[in-house]
Design goal:
heterotetramer; A alpha+beta; B mainly beta; C alpha+beta; D alpha/beta; A: alpha+beta; Alpha-Beta Plaits; 6-stranded mixed β-sheet; 4 helices; 19% helix; 32% strand; B: mainly beta; Folate-binding fold; 4-stranded antiparallel β-sheet; two-stranded antiparallel ribbon; globular; binds flavin-adenine dinucleotide; binds nicotinamide-adenine-dinucleotide; binds flavin mononucleotide; binds zinc ion
């Protein structure tokens, strides 16, 4: 039978948006993002750090921080473990990563494992305060900081980007794909009082970086 | 209660899962008295009232297992570290 | 009649001008069905007093008429039912209920009406209803206890009624972090906040009141040349200008909890976001639970004035002196026309002066102390009143409200005064609660005859009245100092500020706990009707520790937790047993500081959102196919797929099974745990965590594995596939996925950190579908084309492979749970929806059907595969017939302890199959096995049925069970005894494999 | 007389149970009892209550003698909780051994007996447990008469709700085991539960209610009254109840234990029984013993008193929540352990939230009811979730421990069996399985099947 390529489905796709007009919080799905977990092999941390520097021009962060170069980013999610991401959506990312560092680290494709949202808006911090047990004060949680935590019963990994043009904070959050709906409910009801808007693409009214 | 994860920083109790006394070591399975030693290691607890070395799992964080010294009378956290110097160090 | 006049009629006790209420906003409300009006800024209590309503409730035991005693959250008497229908709230304190337009409240614990409450007849039996009377009675005849006595007691129990309908309002939780948390916004708190804020610290200032200022709103203080209340407003404005300051009004810090290494500590606080409006506005919660983490905390919670125990001290019209001032100065309400004051402290006198100042006739000032500061006596000259020192009020009279008091003067003479309000001041109790929640024990301070905080929680300091410093000057000074210290301690620099000039204050107090000479009932705990006699009885009967006293008499166990009054009971006990109060100590105070609605602790987690719901990427498709879903942990899984017109679940499931066994079917198995395991040590790691060998598993092959707990019992089973020499993919059961992951991380990080192993969950990355049935291969050939050769030779039973397919990386495993020729195809989850549709269309020619977990379960029972029902945490590998999987070639977790006699005992129940002797009979899970003809006793118990199913292939019910020495007992007939299902079936013991015993179909 | 007036008088009769209901039979009681027994203490009866009422209740004496320690006793019991006091009572009553002291660190009932959620039931699955707890239930049913103290045993039923077929079958298995031992058990379907508790969430539940396992004889008892009742009865039979007397060490002679050091001096005894629940490991350590026990904190909660509307005990099968309503009107509820070792008698906020989320998931109708107070107790969590009543291997020292959060219901039987062990040096038949060596031998009694992880039991 015909070998028509499989089509991807976005985890947040089709999730209803609660009737809460306004722009306090704006979100857009990061459907395109390619993701892979990287766990360094025993005793290879120095070698891996050098390899990543050489191949991607990224200084592998030892702690919970995210470093970006071009399309690729490495976010520390655990001791000796990172969530690597690539903007250009290809199922090949994990594979190319494997080829680049597979001898020094175990690489696992997670492009489908997580549902990722970019979030911004003047009321974002107030909204996230209802969800995350983290201190997101601008002086405490800086751009490039990463945190794995629990977002009212849903495991989540959060990182901060540079503030948007309008001065609003910008965060991205990754939750397990199967939990997208539950997280969405929690986010939407927490943002409702401030107004909650969804953008279909990053370009449409979302800070692009 | 808040636990200082060496990787994530100080986090709320709700992110962690408790395992128990950190003293547990797997005895030598081939020792003649292995059965008795395994029984003691798995079942007997000092269960002190005061400082207690215990294992916690940062289940909703970095998934590290942590060795926490905590006072069981006051819940005061006295020290937190990884169970062993990290594998690749 | 114009509006103003109307108000005057409606609010006879409202003073012109005075108070911090908004007279431009009259609000109408109802109490016991009658309409009244008050003003914005009123509480229900102040509005009722303004309308001259004094009787507002009935007491718990004796149904005594009760009025308004206080003006704060410590109120024991004025409890009402607020709102109605699903929003009905029992026991709401009128003294803190903020008035809103249309407020509807009712009095409680009375029938048929507040004025004539037949319950009051119980006071006839008062002599019988002493503390603990029920422990001494109702014992005979035993039968009557349940039938008559207890129902009667229960009918008398409780005050208000719960709505008994689901709460329609929403609630939410929020987290906040700060350098300095300040609990209470009186002068001390405001001073602390302003000091810390000006240093740039992140400050959270909470007050349970809807106005900041604390006592400043209640007293006629001067600060810095302005009215205290105005000063408070000025500071509030200043604070609001600081970006790092968060002011939480209507927010009670209810609990102090544990902290961490850094010294930061957790607190619980409740913000009443919308309790002051009829219903919460759109998208607004009714209440918000704050979880606050503070590096430093300043406790400026103030103090609570305590009553004096004397006859009739509970009559409506008897009121705390501080409350009298609050109603006068804050609400512009005179609580009565003819007043008297009964005090043991200088502070109380303020009430007399403030009353006189607004023209209320103060007939007498009764001060129990023989010596009183000349300044006070001099001031009293200016109001024409009679001052009696060394005197005591022995009795307060008046059926529904106070009308007379009897006073015993210093000479012992009895004099009576006609009054309608008696202001009482027995001294002040610092609000120490939050300093004790994590173990601190308050210390007795003789100077103020009260307990003050001691052994403060790390990071917390106290200032102002909460610490026992009772003058305004001290409150301001200590507050400012504490705020500055806290800011410095968290890394900010502060500039010293001069003390503000304030009106000075006399604070001397000589406690008088109770008035001996009283004849009528003298109340210690108002709400619970605990009297002086009850305390004496407790002493007599040996309940002398404060904790026994509390539990025997219920002193301090009411909704006010005895915040103001328990100390009187303790003092009386001390006197009776000739001990000093500090020797008795205090009872433990516990969170919450004031009662918190249960729903607030739940936030958004109720109904469907009680727990998160996990959906597979095939969910939308399954829904469209008419699947019925069931909970499986947090997941929703398709139970079965009803075809149009199908209704009976059993026939649907049977249809699904038959189609799979005769053709082909597909099932979403994405929920099974998938763990990616890599590294040099991966193979030996698996050898240690599985009971059987995996280092010997060839590349490109899958093996069934059994995992034990260290105690030797089975933990989980699953498969592991070897994709590359150092790369395995493990699968776990859906239920145990997280548990296994944690177990493996423990083994990796704690047990064997020297091994080179990396493990990560990829459960969410892969959508996985089981394709099972004689036509499974044909379907796959059509589906996968030449992406991979699935012929039996190229891809035999237990083969696995990773390959590229339609632009994605796919994985194929030839494993079978159903016992059929079967494969599991995995694709990245975002293609899961697309893949399942592709599978269905590829399967069309073969009549493929989707099947759910019921059909899956039927087939696994037909095959005798064990699941959670059998692997229930109490079974060994041998019990469930997997003894052979216990490798003898190596050590592994659970090996040693599995050899304990109790676990190796041949008499343990073993896995068997059963079928009903009468083929038409239905089997039930949970039935117990008994030998034929043996009595149904525990002694005769032979085991139990773990799983049952109707086998469409065999046409009758089949089951699995655990039976003592089961493997030896094939062919034996037994009773499957299930009284709770009202039945018993005779069954025959058979091998736990009902279908295709030699597994020919697997290999086909 | 108008209908209303009639109703109102009727209500008086009902509300004023003391005035009428009891008065009616008061006389009979005392006549009976007077002939029955002459007691040292004033007998508790409505008759004496009324007589005392006339004299301002001046005549009541101490409920129990607040004794000072003697130098020697036949038996010393460490721990003045329910179990220790019950043991003393039955030693005196059943075995005629009354030269007994109960040593209590603080005030009697200050431990878990005084802070538990008072549920009594015998709905156990395993043969090691079931007969023991049913024996306890039988003792509860006769306790008032035995003690002449109204412990308010109230058999309003215990209902465990299930949410899936698998859970139903496990409950069926348990219910069947109960029935086979003559314990009452009924398996209800969803409709049956709805009839009992119409206000649960049946429409929008995340985990729909499928039914429940009901034991009608289960219910609650007034926790403090149990302590005081046993104390009074034991004291009445000559047992010394010694408060503010903490055991700080053991006295040994010739390899056996012959006494205890206490904060009130040394006390010798030929047999010493430990019944210190949450403190078991600490006291055992004084004798050089290490136990298969961890101490964990369990929190409990009570709401403001409201008019009763929850009849019996209800437990939620899909979350951590159980509830009953006290005779005073407070909703008494709880959930799971906090999960970490603790001797602090208090817990933290996450557990409070977890319990209340369970409450709202099952009973949204109590959402506006206010939580009045929360507290914690120190649980002696054993490694298989079941108790130990056994010798210790040290001559003269006996152990009663490992009650987890289920030992209140066990109080009478625990006392009965521990007394039996102390008096006869052999285990009582219903407590045979509660051996200390079962962990080594693998004869575990693990109702939940979670293994050697105490905080999961
Ligand atoms: C919150 C909570 C809820 C519970 N709910 C239930 C329930 O609903 N149903 C149920 O069946 N069970 C329940 N339990 C469990 C039950 O309360 C306990 O298992 C039982 O009370 C333990 O027996 P006890 O009464 O003898 O213990 P305790 O009352 O704790 O008695 C032990 C006594 O020993 C004393 N002691 C300790 N060390 C020393 C020493 N060195 N010297 C002298 N004395 C010492 C202590 O002060 C204490 O008074 C609950 C427990 C808690 C904490
Ligand atoms: N003369 C005397 O004998 C005497 C005695 C006591 C108090 N006082 C007066 O009282 C004042 C004391 O000032 P202060 O600031 O110490 O106390 P305060 O009573 O003025 O303020 C305390 C504030 O804390 C709030 N509060 C209490 N518990 C809270 C909680 N858990 N959460 C949130 N808010 C809470 C209260 O609503 C109140 O507004 C001074 O003006 C002093 O003159 C005088
Ligand atoms: C069944 C039961 C009912 C209770 N009811 C109340 C109550 O109505 N009011 C109250 O203040 N405390 C009540 N409590 C809690 C006690 O006040 C106290 O918190 C508990 O016994 C633990 O003691 P502690 O807090 O002093 O440590 C109750 C406790 C139990 C076990
Ligand atoms: Zn961490």
């Amino acid at each position: 039978m015909a070998d028509d390529a499989l089509t991807a489905r976005a985890p947040f796709g089709g999730l209803a948006i609660s009737a809460a007009p306004g722009n306090g919080v704006r979100v857009a799905e990061r459907g395109g993002l390619a993701l892979a977990t990287v766990h360094v092999r025993r005793g290879q941390i120095t070698a891996l750090t050098e390899r990543v520097r050489a191949r991607f021009g990224i200084e592998l962060p030892p702690g919970p921080h995210r470093r970006v170069a071009g399309d690729v980013a490495f976010a520390g999610i655990a001791p000796e473990a990172w969530l690597a991401s690539s903007e250009e959506d290809s199922n090949g990312f994990a594979r190319s990563l494997e080829a680049a560092i597979g001898d020094l680290a175990s690489v696992a494709d997670q492009s489908s494992g997580y549902a990722v949202l970019r979030m911004t808006g003047p009321k974002l911090r107030e909204t996230l305060a209802k969800i995350l047990p983290l201190d997101l004060h601008p002086r405490v949680f800086l751009p490039g900081d990463v945190a794995s935590t629990i977002a009212s019963h849903v495991g989540a990994t959060l990182w901060r980007l540079e503030d948007g043009a309008d001065g609003s904070p910008v965060f991205e959050i990754a939750v397990f794909r199967s939990l997208a709906g539950s997280f969405w409910h929690c986010l939407a009801s927490s943002a409702a009082e401030f107004g909650f808007a969804r953008r279909e693409t990053l370009s449409s009214g979302m800070p692009n970086q | 209660m808040r636990i200082q994860c060496p990787y994530c920083g100080e986090r709320d109790l709700s992110e962690f899962a408790y395992h128990g006394d950190a003293a547990f070591r797997r005895p030598d399975p081939d020792a003649p008295d292995a059965a008795a030693r395994f029984f003691e290691a798995l079942y007997l607890r000092e269960n002190p009232a005061g400082p207690h070395e215990e294992l916690w799992y940062h289940a909703s964080g970095c998934r590290s297992w942590l060795r926490v010294t905590r006072n069981t009378r006051t819940h005061e956290i006295l020290a937190v570290s990884f169970p062993k110097p990290s594998a690749s160090a | 009649m114009n509006a103003r006049e109307q108000q005057e009629v409606a609010q006879p006790n409202r003073l012109a001008g005075a108070g911090r209420i908004d007279r431009s906003r009259p609000l109408s409300f109802r109490f016991d069905g009658r309409r009244y009006t008050g003003f914005a800024g009123d509480t229900l209590a102040s509005a009722l007093l303004a309308a001259n309503v004094r009787l507002v409730g009935r007491s718990f035991k004796y149904h005594r008429p009760r009025g308004i005693l206080t003006a704060g959250s410590e109120e024991p008497n004025a409890l009402v039912e607020l709102r109605d229908g699903a929003r009905r709230e029992a026991n709401t304190r009128a003294t803190v209920a903020e008035l809103y337009d249309g407020l509807d409240a009712r009095s409680q614990n009375r029938w048929p009406s507040l004025a004539l409450d037949v319950g009051a007849a119980s006071s006839l039996f008062a002599p019988l209803l002493v503390a603990g009377f029920y422990y001494k009675t109702f014992m005979w005849p035993a039968a009557l206890w349940e039938k008559l006595y207890e129902p009667a007691i229960r009918r008398a129990a409780g005050l208000g009624r719960a709505s008994q309908e689901a709460d329609p309002d929403s609630y939410e939780k929020a987290h906040a972090f700060c350098d300095v948390l300040i609990v209470g916004a009186g002068p001390a708190g405001l001073a602390a906040a302003s000091a810390a804020a000006s240093a740039g610290a992140r400050v959270i200032l909470c007050d349970e009141d809807f106005l900041l200022g604390g006592r400043l709103n209640s007293e006629r203080f001067e600060i810095d040349g302005m009215r205290g209340a105005s000063w408070a407003q000025q500071v509030e404005a200043e604070l609001r200008s600081h970006p790092e300051v968060r002011i939480l009004r209507r927010t009670t810090v209810f609990g102090t909890y544990d902290g961490g290494l850094s010294g930061a500590r957790s607190f619980g606080a409740l913000e009443r976001v919308a309790d002051h409006v009829p219903i919460p506005p759109a998208h607004q919660p009714r209440q918000r639970l704050w979880k606050i983490v503070a590096k430093r905390t300043v406790l400026t919670a103030g103090a609570v004035e305590r009553p004096i125990v004397f006859g009739g001290n509970d009559r409506p019209g008897v009121m705390m002196a501080s409350a009298v001032r609050t109603y006068l100065n804050r609400f512009g309400v005179v609580p009565g026309r003819r007043a008297a004051l009964f005090t043991t402290s200088d502070d109380g006198w303020k009430a007399a002066f403030d009353l006189a100042a607004v023209g209320v006739r103060v007939v007498a000032i009764i001060d129990a102390r023989r010596e009183v500061a000349p300044a006070l006596l001099a001031a009293a000259e200016h109001i024409e009143t009679q001052v009696l020192c060394g005197a005591q009020v022995v009795d307060a009279h008046g059926a529904r409200g106070l009308d007379r008091i009897t006073v015993r003067d210093h000479a012992g003479e009895r004099v009576q005064f006609r009054v309608d309000v008696l202001a009482v001041s027995g001294g002040w109790n610092p609000s120490v609660a939050l300093s004790t929640h994590v173990g601190g024990r308050p210390r007795w301070a003789d100077t103020i005859a009260a307990f003050v905080p001691d052994g403060m929680p790390r990071g917390m300091v106290v200032a102002g009245a909460a610490g026992g410093s009772f003058t305004l000057a001290d409150a301001l000074r200590e507050g400012a100092a504490a705020g500055a210290e806290a800011a410095q301690a968290t890394g900010f620099t502060t500039v010293p500020r001069p003390d503000l000039p304030v009106s000075d204050e006399l604070t001397a107090v000589v406690p008088l706990w109770s008035v001996e000479a009283s004849e009528s009932k003298a109340f210690v705990d108002f709400q619970h009707d605990v009297t002086c006699e009850d305390v004496a009885l407790a002493a007599r009967e040996g309940f002398r520790s404060v904790e026994h006293l509390k539990r025997y008499t219920t002193l301090g166990m009411a909704t006010d937790q005895g915040r103001a009054s328990s100390i009187n009971g303790h003092a009386i006990m001390a006197a009776l047993t000739e001990r000093a109060i500090p020797e008795l100590g205090t009872t433990t105070s516990r969170p919450p500081y004031t009662p918190v609605a249960l729903a607030a602790f739940a936030g958004i987690h109720r109904g469907k959102h009680f727990k998160p719901t996990r959906l597979t990427s095939g969910h939308a498709w399954a829904e469209a196919r008419g699947a019925t879903f069931m909970e499986s942990g947090d997941w929703l899984r398709a139970q079965w797929f009803a075809a149009p017109g199908e209704t009976d679940w059993l026939s649907i499931v049977s249809r699904e099974v038959k189609t799979v066994r005769s053709g082909v079917g597909v099932c979403d198995v994405s929920t099974l745990g998938k763990i990616d395991i890599q590294g040099q040590g991966a193979a030996s790691f698996l050898d240690r965590v599985y009971s059987n060998l995996f280092s010997t598993l060839p590349i490109g092959r899958v093996r069934y594995g059994l995992m034990l707990r260290e105690d030797g019992l089975v933990m989980d089973d699953g498969t592991s596939a070897r994709l590359a020499p150092r790369h395995y993919i493990m699968s776990t059961t859906t239920a145990n996925a997280a548990k296994v992951m944690r177990h493996l991380e423990h083994a990796r990080q704690v047990l064997w950190p020297e091994l080179d192993v990396q493990i990560v969950s990829v459960t969410e990355q892969w959508a996985q579908y089981a394709i099972a049935g004689p036509n499974a291969r044909h379907l796959l050939e059509r589906l996968l084309g030449d992406a991979i050769d699935v012929s039996n030779s190229a891809f035999p039973y237990l083969a696995c492979a990773e390959f590229a397919w339609r632009g994605v990386t796919a994985r194929l495993f030839r494993i079978s749970f159903s016992g059929e020729l079967a494969y599991e195809l995995a694709v990245p989850a975002r293609f899961g929806d697309s893949a399942i549709r592709a599978i269905l269309s590829a399967g069309e020619p073969f009549g493929v059907v989707p099947y759910g977990i019921e059909a899956l379960s039927v087939m696994r029972i037909e095959k005798g595969h064990v699941t959670g029902n059998e692997l229930n945490g109490t079974t060994t590998a041998a019990d469930v017939g997997l003894g052979r999987m216990m490798s003898t070639k190596k050590d592994f977790i659970g090996r040693v302890l599995a050899q304990r006699p109790g676990l190796a005992d041949p008499d343990r129940p073993q896995l068997i199959g059963i079928r009903p002797v009468d083929p038409s009979a239905r089997l039930y899970g949970g039935a117990h096995f008994l030998k034929l003809g043996e009595e149904a006793t525990l002694a005769n118990d032979q085991g139990y049925v773990t799983s049952v199913a109707f086998s469409p292939m065999l046409g009758h019910w089949i089951g699995l069970g655990l039976l003592v020495r089961g493997r030896e007992r094939r062919g034996e007939r037994l009773r499957a005894h299930s009284p709770v299902r009202g039945g018993e079936v005779e069954v025959e013991v058979v091998a736990p494999v009902f279908f295709d015993p030699d597994g020919a179909r697997l290999h086909g | 007389m108008s209908v209303d007036a009639a109703k109102c008088i009727f209500d008086i009769a009902e509300i004023q149970f003391v005035g009428r209901a009891v008065a009616i039979i008061g006389g009979t009681i005392c006549r009976l009892y007077h002939s029955a027994e002459a007691v040292a203490l004033m007998h508790y009866s409505i008759f004496n209550l009324m007589r005392q009422a006339l004299s301002g209740h001046r005549g009541w004496g101490p409920a129990w003698r607040d004794a000072t320690p003697k130098s020697t006793y036949d038996v010393v019991i460490i721990g003045g909780g329910g179990h220790g006091l019950a043991t003393a009572h039955y030693l005196a009553k059943v075995h005629g051994i009354s030269n007994v002291a109960v040593l209590e660190r603080g005030w009697i009932g200050s431990g878990n007996a005084g802070r538990n959620t008072t549920i009594i039931r015998s709905n156990y699955l395993l043969p090691g447990n079931n007969p023991f707890y049913e024996w306890s239930m039988k003792l509860w049913e006769g306790l008032e008469q035995d003690l002449n103290y109204n412990a308010m045993v109230s058999q309003r039923g215990v209902l465990n709700i299930y949410h899936s077929d698998a859970q139903r079958d496990t409950y069926a298995r348990r219910g069947n085991a109960m029935r086979m031992h003559g314990v009452d058990a009924e398996l209800l379907d969803a409709a049956g539960v709805r009839r009992m508790l119409p206000f649960l969430d049946y429409e929008s539940a995340r985990f729909p209610i499928h039914g429940g396992l009901l034991q009608r004889r289960g219910g609650t008892a007034r926790h403090d009254a149990v302590v005081w009742g046993f104390a009074r009865a034991a004291s009445d039979r000559g047992v010394d109840i010694i408060q503010n007397c903490e055991v700080t060490g053991f006295i040994r002679a010739a390899g056996r234990i012959v006494g205890v050091e206490t904060t009130r001096g040394a006390i010798r005894a030929s047999k010493i029984g430990m019944a210190v629940a949450g403190s078991s490991s600490r006291v055992a350590a004084l004798a050089g013993l290490t136990l298969p026990i961890e101490s964990h904190v369990l929190q409990a909660f009570v709401s403001e008193a409201i008019k009763p509307f929850i009849a019996g005990v209800v437990t939620f099968g899909a979350g951590h929540f159980y509830i009953s309503q006290s005779d005073k009107g407070g909703l008494v509820f709880g959930g799971d352990l906090d999960g970490y070792n603790s001797y602090a008698q208090r817990g933290n906020l996450p557990t409070v939230e977890d319990v209340c989320e369970g409450a709202m998931a099952l009973m949204p109708a109590i959402g506006r009811v206010r939580v009045l107070r929360s507290w914690g107790g120190v649980m002696d969590m054993s490694m298989d979730g079941s108790p130990i009543i056994d010798r210790t291997g040290i001559e003269g020292l006996y152990l009663n421990a490992g009650w987890c959060y289920g030992g209140f219901k066990a109080t009478p039987a625990s006392g009965w069996c521990f007394a039996h062990l102390l008096a006869r040096d052999e285990s009582h038949e219903v407590a045979r399985a509660y051996r200390l060596d079962r962990f080594a031998s693998g004869h575990l009694i693990d109702e939940r099947g979670v293994g050697a992880q105490p905080n999961l039991h």
